[in-house]
């Protein structure tokens, strides 16, 4: 490890983190990857997968991000940019929830040049005065804590959607069975951020797998197994800690996050170098820090090994969303009863139209459509090549979806029929026939 990799303050210096396997592709075939990592849901780091990529030859200039090339080729494109504030060394004081805005790549490259020292240390957003070390004493964004730094992180850029004919990379063979991106290219991303940018603690959408390749730069990952997820939440089980190294010497934080000190003892640490690719298993929570200016390519993906787990998570979200809407409708009914001049009165039916859905319900509804589309696509396009375990997984998930629609609860039948070609029962018969 390079100097500075272990700059965690106070008690964190004493932690001995678990390590993931580091593999050379010359000694790792697809079957071994499946048996050792994919099926058992274990992480690993694979070297030397990016050297032949155009992204590696065009966007990596002597180990640094080639900002000039990026701007010249893609400057007019828009991309989401996340503004975050980091408090204290190595996120010890926390990292704020990002505020997302859209910028052109040209605008982001201009910011990069204007607020960059050239040694990998950005000097903050610049919206306010700085002391030369990125410490904000600012105006325009409210008061800043001493030592707080604000950074812009271009992330979740759907490059392949914006430039479908520009092939930056080739999907590695280990991740070839990607059912998610067969039907939706929205889960392929480019990330670009200066040193100190960070992604807060999270688990990936739909309990998907993810892989991430460093075209240039270095990252530090902390990963926590699904069975230890509860250690990352507050005492009420509602709020996820922002970072594994959130300050527990603060008495309030220690009371609110009593499990975090135990989570650190079972966490994995990974230093990912340029050219290396990490496989993040389904349901593993993680934080990611850029140790240098870093450009990476990232995919979320699903297949027969994690589709059922994805569905189990979504089922819980659908149930919670339906219960929230029913509770809201009951409260509205009581309110309408008490307000005598209301138009509808207390006897109004529960509104399960899409217009009544909150953001979480809309997301769950969209994910339901997506999972159905994944199954429908695989059955219609790839039925002869699907294994019996793939078909069994699809049958189990689709049976639940068909039952959900038949039950009529939650308004999800309408969502499926409006947004996709609903043939659930027919597809189920095809799958059962293929299984014999």
TrEMBL record:
InterPro entries registered for this protein in UniProt: Cupin_8, JmjC_dom, JMJD6_ArgDemeth/LysHydrox
Pfam families listed in its UniProt record: Cupin_8 (PF13621)
- Residue span(s) of domain JmjC: 160-318
Which GO-annotated molecular functions does the record name? 2-oxoglutarate-dependent dioxygenase activity; sequence-specific DNA binding
Q: Which GO terms describe its cellular component?
A: cytoplasm; nucleus
Locations of Basic and acidic residues compositional bias? 130-144
Annotated region (Disordered) at 120-144
Quick one: a GO biological-process term for this protein?
positive regulation of translational termination
- Which spans does this entry mark as compositional bias, Acidic residues? 120-129
Q: What is this protein called?
A: JmjC domain-containing protein
Instruction: List each coiled-coil range.
Output: none
């Amino acid at each position: 490890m390079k100097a500075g990799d272990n700059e965690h303050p106070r008690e964190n210096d004493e932690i001995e983190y678990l390590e993931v396997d580091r593999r050379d592709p010359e000694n790792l075939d697809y079957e071994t990857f499946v048996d050792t990592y994919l099926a058992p849901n274990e992480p690993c780091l694979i070297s030397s997968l990016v050297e032949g990529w155009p992204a590696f030859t065009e966007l990596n200039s002597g180990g640094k991000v080639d900002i000039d090339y990026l701007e010249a080729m893609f400057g007019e494109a828009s991309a989401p940019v996340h503004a975050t504030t980091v408090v204290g060394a190595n996120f010890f004081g926390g990292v704020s929830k990002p505020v997302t805005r859209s910028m052109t790549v040209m605008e982001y490259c201009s910011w990069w040049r204007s607020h960059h020292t050239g040694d990998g240390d950005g000097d903050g957003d610049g919206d306010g005065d700085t002391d030369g070390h990125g410490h904000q004493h600012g105006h325009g964004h409210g008061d800043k804590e001493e030592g707080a730094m604000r950074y812009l992180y271009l992330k979740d850029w759907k490059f392949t959607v914006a430039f479908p004919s520009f092939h930056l990379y080739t999907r590695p063979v280990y991740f070839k069975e990607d059912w998610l991106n067969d039907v939706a290219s929205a889960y392929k991303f480019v990330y670009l951020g200066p040193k100190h940018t960070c992604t807060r603690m999270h688990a990936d959408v739909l309990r998907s797998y993810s892989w991430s390749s460093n075209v240039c730069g270095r990252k530090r990952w902390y990963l926590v197994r699904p069975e230890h997820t509860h250690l990352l939440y507050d005492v009420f089980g509602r709020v996820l800690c922002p970072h594994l190294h959130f300050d527990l010497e603060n008495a309030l934080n220690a009371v609110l996050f009593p499990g975090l000190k135990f989570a650190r003892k079972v966490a994995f640490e990974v230093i990912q170098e340029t050219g290396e690719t990490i496989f993040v298993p389904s349901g593993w929570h993680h934080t990611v820090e850029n140790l240098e200016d870093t450009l990476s390519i990232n995919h979320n993906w699903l297949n027969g090994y994690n589709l059922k787990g994805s569905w189990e998570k979504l089922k819980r979200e659908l149930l919670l969303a339906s219960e929230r809407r029913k509770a809201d409708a009951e409260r509205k009914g009581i309110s309408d009863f008490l307000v005598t001049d209301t138009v509808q009165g207390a006897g109004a039916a529960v509104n399960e139209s899409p217009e009544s859905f909150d953001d979480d319900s809309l997301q769950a509804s969209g994910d339901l459509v997506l999972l159905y589309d994944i199954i429908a696509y695989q059955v219609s396009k790839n039925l002869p090549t699907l294994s019996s375990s793939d078909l069994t997984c699809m049958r189990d998930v689709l049976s639940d979806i068909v039952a959900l629609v038949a039950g009529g609860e939650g308004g999800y039948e309408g969502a499926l029929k409006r947004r996709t070609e609903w043939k659930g029962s027919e597809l189920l018969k095809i799958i059962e026939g293929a299984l014999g």
